[in-house]
Specification:
By secondary structure, the chain is α/β, with parallel strands linked by helices. It has two domains: about 10-255, Aspartate Aminotransferase, domain 2; about 260-410, Aspartate Aminotransferase, domain 1. About 40% of the residues lie in helices and about 15% in strands. The protein has a seven-stranded mixed β-sheet with strand order 1-9-8-5-4-2-3, with helices on both faces. It has a three-stranded antiparallel β-sheet with strand order 12-13-14. Strand 6 and strand 7 form a beta hairpin. Helix 3 (about 60-70) packs across helix 8 (about 215-225) and helix 12 (about 335-345) packs across helix 14. The two termini are about 20 Å apart. The relative contact order is 0.17. The structure holds pyridoxal-5'-phosphate. Pyridoxal-5'-phosphate binds near residues 59, 144 and 196.
Length: about 400
């Protein structure tokens, strides 16, 4: 039996009639741009996210761009973010002429490390001395809630208050995640969500959403996505064309009803993986905090923990009362990744590396002059992380087969 990394056909087959009816309804209405399907979905998703304001847009990447446009990010302004994320997080900053500052992640949550963030903002670390930012030009922090688990938002919001910075949550992978009872997108000034088809709530193409806390900024986002016009053809701002398509809105309205049960099932699967890996005796118990040494860009050595794996951990927010990890990805760490991947490939089992090259050493950011060593944990994790199949329809036999295959490769 082959097991794909993600099986969207399996999901579609469970809701096919509902989805087909919803899409047909849009086609019959011939209202493809904005209109009632989009409005209805925006209302439902705002309620789901417990957000004051929610606006559909063309993608998660555009949601990030719109948030930065709404705070009037100027060329030469700085925005702090994680280097261990999808490119779009930092791409949005650079597209507006901003300068990303990459602060390293925690080894167990894979999210922005608040301690390193404080050291940087207080000017107490090597990176600050090298970047020498004009502190007044640091405008925002983009914490990324990677793999479905929120960043440690309490100390991050404290720092944002202290240094007068906006918070733009990159919640592209975390719709419905909670940190101490608060849903993703609600702890910052903005929440940016992606409905890329592979996400927990996936559209039938590109789609995204931005949630906003402040009414004035919400109004600005609302017109920025529509070429900055209000009314039509009267342009208050230079905006962009970034609307949520009506067909996508109709698909998402159907899927939203199932989202919580799908995310709960993902967590069940994650716990089952953990249990099976434990019973195979494969789990590394020593905390491996990720040290990384290198002499040149990219190449280097990480901590090794031969023939064992490190399980994904639920950390501060997810572990708290009313916290929630939605397991967009189930990501293990292994220092024998090549061996594991070839064993999985031989059995036709999908896996993927999110992300093989951290952003601080990407070629397109080379003018920022980061060295690999500036973010050692990200380097180490990008050498060791491996995401395994996770989707609600994955069954116990398939999970057992994946665990056995990895076990055989490592023993
Ligand atoms: C962390 C993160 N940020 C931003 C994005 C961009 O979202 P989209 O692909 O919808 O533009 C993604 C999704 O791919 C993501 O995973």
């Amino acid at each position: 039996m082959s097991i794909p990394l993600l099986d969207l056909q399996a999901q579609y087959s469970t809701i096919k009639d509902e989805i087909n009816d919803a899409v047909l309804e849009v086609i019959e209405s011939q209202h493809f741009i904005m209109g009632s399907f989009v409005k209805e979905f925006e209302k439902e998703v705002a309620e789901y996210c417990e957000a004051d304001f929610a606006f559909g847009c063309a993608s998660g990447s555009d949601a990030l761009l719109l948030a930065l446009m709404a705070i009037d990010l100027q060329p030469g302004d700085y925005v702090i973010t994680s280097p261990f994320t999808f490119f779009a997080t930092a791409g949005a900053i650079q597209r507006l002429g901003g300068i990303p500052i990459f602060i390293d992640i925690e080894h167990n949550s894979f999210n922005l490390d608040p301690k390193r963030l404080r050291d940087f903002l207080e000017g107490n670390d090597e990176l600050f001395r090298r970047v020498k930012p004009d502190i007044k030009k640091i405008k925002a922090i983009i914490p990324v809630h990677l793999y479905g688990q929120m960043a440690d938002m309490e100390p991050i919001t404290e720092l944002a208050r202290e240094f007068d910075l906006k918070i733009i949550e990159d919640a592209a992978q975390s719709i419905g995640s909670k940190y101490k009872g608060v849903k993703a997108g609600n702890l910052g000034d903005f929440g940016c969500f992606s409905f890329f088809p592979s996400k927990n709530l996936g559209a039938f193409g590109d789609a995204g959403l931005i949630t906003v806390k402040n009414e004035e900024l919400a109004d600005k986002v609302n017109i920025l996505r529509l070429h900055g016009a209000r009314p039509k053809y009267y342009h208050k701002l230079v905006g962009i064309n970034s609307r949520l398509d009506a067909i996508q809105a109709a698909v998402l309205s159907v899927k939203l009803k199932y989202l919580d049960s799908w995310s709960d099932r993902r967590r069940e699967i994650a716990l089952l993986y953990n249990e099976l890996f434990e019973s195979e005796g494969l789990v590394e118990k020593e905390p491996i905090e990720c040290s990384y040494s290198c002499s040149s860009r990219g190449g280097g050595d990480c901590d090794l923990f031969d023939n064992k794996i490190i399980l994904p951990e639920e950390t501060t927010g997810a572990l708290s009362k009313d916290g929630r990890h939605i397991y967009h990805q189930y990501t293990i760490r292994t220092s024998n990744r090549e061996k594991v991947v070839s064993a999985l490939n031989a059995e036709n089992i999908g896996s993927s590396i999110y992300y093989p090259v951290p952003l601080h050493i990407q070629e397109c950011f080379s003018d920022l002059k980061y060295s690999a060593q500036d973010c050692p944990v990200s380097m180490c994790v990008s050498n060791q992380s491996l995401s395994l199949p996770i989707y609600p329809e994955l069954n116990k036999d398939q999970i057992k087969k994946i665990v056995k295959t990895i076990s055989k490769a490592l023993k």
